[in-house]
Amino acid sequence: MENLLEIRDLTYKKNLKTILDNINLNLQPGKIVALLGENGAGKTTLMRVISGIAKNYRGTVKISGESKEAQRKARLSFTDSLTGFNNSTKIKDIVKFYEIIYQDFDGKQFEQLRQFMKLDSEMRLSEMSKGMKEKLIIALAFSRKVDLYLLDEPFSGIDAMARKKIINSIILWKPENSTILVSDHFVNEIASMLDEIVIIKDKTIYTHKSTEEIREHHKSVEDYYESLYEAEDE
Ligand SMILES: Nc1ncnc2c1ncn2[C@@H]1O[C@H](COP(=O)(O)OP(=O)(O)OP(=O)(O)O)[C@@H](O)[C@H]1O
C-alpha cells in the first residue's frame, strides 16, 4: 500500500541546536497513530515540519506522494492554535474565514461538530476557556476533508467526560482512508482508539509499533509505554 505520510532522513535544527535527528517514518492510509514523548521531545516540532510551518529542514516529507509544501498543506489539517485570530473574533467569524480559505471545509459538518461540542457560534475567543478552545480546534480540524489530521495535544484542557465522548467519536469524523497523528504525553486515555504508536526519544523515532502487536506481548499499551520509562529510571 502507498504510504500516506513518508518521512525520510529528516533532520531539523533551530539556532544551531539539533531538535530532530534523522527521523524516518512511514504511515499508511486509514490509521490513527499516537505520537508520544516527554516534554521537549520534539512532537510539536515534528508536526510543524510535516505541515510546512517549520522550514529549512534536511530530508524529505511526502504526503500522498507530494513533497512540495503548498501541495502538502492542501492535504492536511493542522490547527495548533488559534493565535492568528483577534481575541474578539466570534466562532461564526472563524467559520466564515475557514470557508473562504479551505475549499474542503464542510459547513454542515462543522455545525454538527459544534453542537456535539456544545459551543455557541456567538461566543468570542476571549470568552472561551482552554477546553472550549480545544473543542473548537477539534471541530474545525474535522470539518475539513484531508488525507492527514495532525492533532497536537488536543485534549489537555478538556474535562474527562467530554474527552471520553470525543475520543469515542473521532473514528466517525475521520474519512475512512485518512490518517490521524495525535500527540500526547500519556497513552492511557487515547489507547482505545489507536492503531499504532510512535515514540520520540533522544530527538529521533525510538519505536513505531502497532497496538495489536504491543497487546500480544504486553498487558496493555499503557503498560508497555510506562515500562519504557521505568527501565530508564532504575
Ligand atoms: N522556538 C524555539 N527555539 C529554539 N528551540 C525550540 C523552540 N521551540 C522548541 N524548541 C526546542 O525544541 C525541542 C522540542 O520542542 P517541542 O515543542 O517540539 O517538544 P514537544 O515534544 O512538543 O514538547 P511538549 O510535550 O512539552 O509540548 C525542545 O528541546 C525545545 O527546547
UniProtKB/TrEMBL annotation:
Nucleotide-binding in keyword set: yes
Pfam families in alphabetical order: ABC_tran
Molecular function terms from GO: ATP binding; ATP hydrolysis activity
Keyword hit for Nucleotide-binding: yes
Superkingdom classification of source: Bacteria
The entry's keywords: ATP-binding, Nucleotide-binding
Domain ABC transporter, chain residue ranges per copy: 5-227
Protein known as: ABC transporter, ATP-binding protein
